[in-house]
Every structure is written in structure tokens, then in C-alpha cells.
Specification:
Blueprint lengths: L9 H5 L8 E2 L2 E5 L10 H13 L11 H21 L7 E4 L2 H11 L8 E5 L4 H12 L4 E5 L1 E2 L2 E2 L1 H7 L4 E7 L12 H9 L3 E5 L11 H4 L3 E5 L10 E5 L1 H6 L10 E6 L6 E5 L13 H14 L4 H19 L5 E3 L3 H4 L4 E6 L6 H10 L4 E4 L1 E3 L4 H7 L4 E5 L6 H18 L2
């Protein structure tokens, strides 16, 4: 028996995102930059307003009054919701961080590298959030960083097989490139890592916008991502880790909320902290309680949508955008169209000498009569990839469930108009 996926009601969904009905400099917004930050649904804004207007009490089990108890309850509910979203075994496998970057820095700083296992492998496509924490660890003499080339389908598995060794402690890779788009299969990399006793860290920042991660199925050891990529608040991130691995990490930041007790000896200076287990041992200080609660609401909202319908819709948008862009000889699309449809973005670069990415961006913001189009141009914090490709900068269209083909048509018309004025 075959089943069909119900179509996503995009128009109804768009009504849940107030920004889409607002004006920017008096113009209607066409938002094609969700890979940077997804717009916020009303439930998120409402939660933040309610929290700071009516609650705002101390959380983290610091106080025992009712305000504090409610704040702490919301914080832990968000942890449970995040675990459910990832199909984690336990809520204690969810550490709240400040961002994807913060979570990866935690792993880079706290991972128990040894003289026998001190190599980390990353790919050429990685965001600076993945590369730089491990470059810093290498500069401090704690690890050696190795780079694996990539293909349209992800890490070059032949190259990876030749790089990985008994000295490899960790492989860190994105599930979906913020420049090349598509999505990368994790299972072949996971199998190689397991065969050599290495751990696997996934950067899911771009992947989760139109995919669901099942951490038990992928057998990832660590997964990092950010709230703001999913319609949640800024300043909230997640590091998932298998429970025994989290408790085997060293310390990243310590302070209030991370210790259970102290052992105090007979001398004045003989004091030893006894740290809590994960996740609390990594959540030092007062947390972003409002942000975490609102992030939990963002995840609940996303889970009301049929994931297959979302994936199908976004894939259709990517394919439609590719067909539009292929009509222009003045630009070059990055990646294979079939692979790109597995992701949520399309990037391209100018081939015509008169096509200026910066001027085109200004054109989209200021020169259109009644539309304000938001895209992203630049190196997208993926300097190494752009250096490898010998491309100075790329232009990126990125999509979320609320985007439409009509918005792509508006962009296509603007691109045609700009090319006619600047390149002919």
C-alpha cells in the first residue's frame, strides 16, 4: 500500500510569521536568507513577551519561590522537547549553549585528546565555526588538524579512508553546506569513524531547517545546531552528546550551577570541587531561560508540520530556483542540481565581468519599486571552500517552509532586470 504526503499549506503557514506581512522601507519583504536566520513564528515572539512581562524570575534551581520553579520547569521542558526533536535517548544528552559555534568550541576545548589520539579531521566545506575551534586547539599544541576534500555528495570517502588512522580522535563535518547546499550522508563517515575508534561530531546548523535528525539512527556522538536557524531566538544553541561521552569531556566553562559540592580538607587551601554530571556541568552561570523556553515553542511549532511535506516543498523550491537561474549565462550555479534538491539553498557566482555581487545586493534592496529582497552575498564564513574553488564570493538563495515559488519569480525578474542594466 502506498501513501501520499499531504501538501504543505504554505499560505496558512505564512500567516504565522509576522515579518512576512511587514514592510521594509515601505516595500514588501521577499526573504530568501533563512540559511543565515529563519524568521520567527508568532508563538516565539509571544513567549518572549510573556516571559519578560509576567515572569522573568530566577531559574537554574537557584531560588525556590514559585517564579523560579516555573522558569526552571520551562527550561527543562525545552530540554525534553529538544531531545524528542532529535530522538535522543535522554533529555540529559541535551546541553544548552549559546550557538552552534559555542557547542563546537565546547567539544574542541573539552574533548579528552591524548598523545595516542590527537588528530581531528574536518572537510574543506566547513564553516569557520567548525574549523577555527580546532585550529585554535592545534595552535595550542593539543591536536593536529587534517582536511578532507569534498565531492557534491559530501566528504570524499576514498580520501577520508586514506587520512583516518588510529591517531584520529574525532571527525567533524557538516550535514549540509551553507554554500554548496544539498545534504551529506553521514552513515559512510560514521562507519569509517567506528572502524578506527574515532568519534563523530555533526554540524546540523543548516540541515535541520528542512530535515529531521535522528541521532540514534545516524549514530552521531555529538551534534551541534542553533535555535535561530529554526525560528527560535538568538543566543540559544544545542550540543547533543551521548551521555557517557558528555560525562567524559573535560571542562569548558565552570561556575555557578556546575558544582554539586566541595570537599574541604584540613588546611585552608585544601578545597576540591565535585562537579555535576552533564548537562548541568556545562551550563555555567545564569542561562538564557526565556530563549530556551521560546526555542522549545519553536520546535513544538515545527513538529506540527508534516516533515515529509516540508522536505518536499523545500526541495521543489530549490529545483524551481535552479531552473530560473539556469536561464542566465552571466552566472554559474554551484553544485549538481540533483544533489542541490536534497538541501535548502542554491548558490551561484558571476561570470560576466560587469556583474557586481555587491551592486546587485544594493539593487535588490533599493532599486526595486515595491519589493525588498533579502539574500546573502560573500564568503558565508566558509573561507577555505572559496579559496579551494578560487571564487572570491558567492550569492546565496536559501529557503524555509514559508517560502513560495512566487518569491523566486520576483527574484528572477530582479536578476533579469539587473543583468539587462549592468551586463548588456
Amino acid at each position: 500500500m502506498t501513501t501520499t504526503t499531504a501538501a504543505l499549506d504554505v499560505q496558512a503557514l505564512r500567516k504565522q510569521y509576522p515579518s512576512l506581512s511587514n514592510k521594509v522601507e515601505g516595500k514588501s519583504l521577499v526573504y530568501l536568507d533563512s540559511a543565515c536566520t529563519a524568521l520567527k513564528p508568532k508563538v516565539v515572539a509571544d513567549r518572549l513577551h510573556d516571559f519578560y512581562t509576567n515572569w522573568g524570575g530566577c531559574g537554574g534551581k537557584r531560588s525556590t519561590h514559585l517564579l523560579s520553579q516555573q522558569v526552571e520547569a520551562w527550561f527543562q521542558e525545552a530540554r525534553v522537547e529538544t531531545a524528542r526533536f532529535l530522538n535522543a535517548e535522554k533529555a540529559d544528552e541535551i546541553v544548552f549553549t549559546g550557538s552552534t559555534t559555542d557547542g563546537i568550541n565546547l567539544v574542541a576545548r573539552a574533548f579528552p585528546f591524548s598523545n595516542e589520539r590527537n588528530e581531528v579531521i574536518v572537510t574543506d566545506v566547513e564553516h569557520n565555526s567548525v574549523v577555527l575551534p580546532f585550529k585554535q586547539a592545534e595552535a595550542e599544541g593539543r591536536i593536529k588538524l587534517r582536511f578532507c576534500p569534498i565531492t557534491d555528495a559530501g566528504p570524499d570517502l576514498n580520501a577520508l579512508a586514506s587520512i583516518i588512522s588510529k591517531k584520529t580522535a574525532l571527525i567533524a563535518m557538516t550535514r549540509s553546506s551553507n554554500v554548496l547546499g544539498g545534504s551529506f550522508s553521514v552513515h559512510p563517515v560514521s562507519q569509517l569513524a567506528r572502524a578506527h575508534g574515532a568519534k563523530l561530531l555533526l554540524d546540523d546548523a543548516q540541515y535541520l531547517s528542512s530535515h529531521r535528525e535522528d541521532v540514534q539512527a545516524s549514530n552521531a556522538d555529538f551534534v551541534a545546531f542553533s535555535s535561530h536557524k529554526l525560528g527560535g531566538p538568538f543566543g540559544v544553541g544545542v550540543l547533543y552528546g551521548k551521555e557517557h561521552l558528555l560525562n567524559g569531556l573535560g571542562h569548558y566553562r565552570v561556575g555557578g550551577g556546575t558544582v554539586k559540592d566541595y570537599e574541604v580538607g584540613d588546611t585552608q587551601d585544601d578545597v576540591t570541587p565535585i562537579y555535576l554530571d552533564a548537562p548541568m556541568r556545562f551550563e555555567a552561570g545564569v542561562q538564557n531561560f526565556a530563549g530556551a523556553a521560546a526555542f522549545g515553542d519553536a520546535l513544538k511549532f515545527l513538529q506540527t508540520l508534516d516533515p515529509d511535506a516540508v522536505r518536499s516543498h523545500v526541495s521543489d523550491l530549490v529545483g524551481y530556483a535552479i531552473r530560473k537561474l539556469q536561464a542566465f549565462d552571466e552566472i554559474e550555479i554551484l553544485g549538481d542540481p540533483k544533489t542541490l534538491k536534497e538541501g535548502s539553498l542554491v548558490s551561484f557566482y558571476p561570470k560576466h565581468k560587469e556583474f557586481s555581487a555587491k551592486d546587485f545586493n544594493l539593487y535588490l534592496n533599493h532599486e526595486l519599486k515595491d519589493k525588498f529582497i533579502a539574500i546573502r552575498i560573500g564568503d558565508h564564513c566558509a573561507h577555505i571552500l572559496h579559496k579551494r574553488m578560487k571564487i572570491k564570493e558567492t550569492l546565496r538563495l536559501s529557503f524555509f517552509a514559508y517560502n513560495t515559488k512566487e518569491e523566486i519569480d520576483v527574484f528572477g525578474a530582479a536578476l533579469e532586470s539587473y543583468i539587462h542594466e549592468a551586463c548588456r
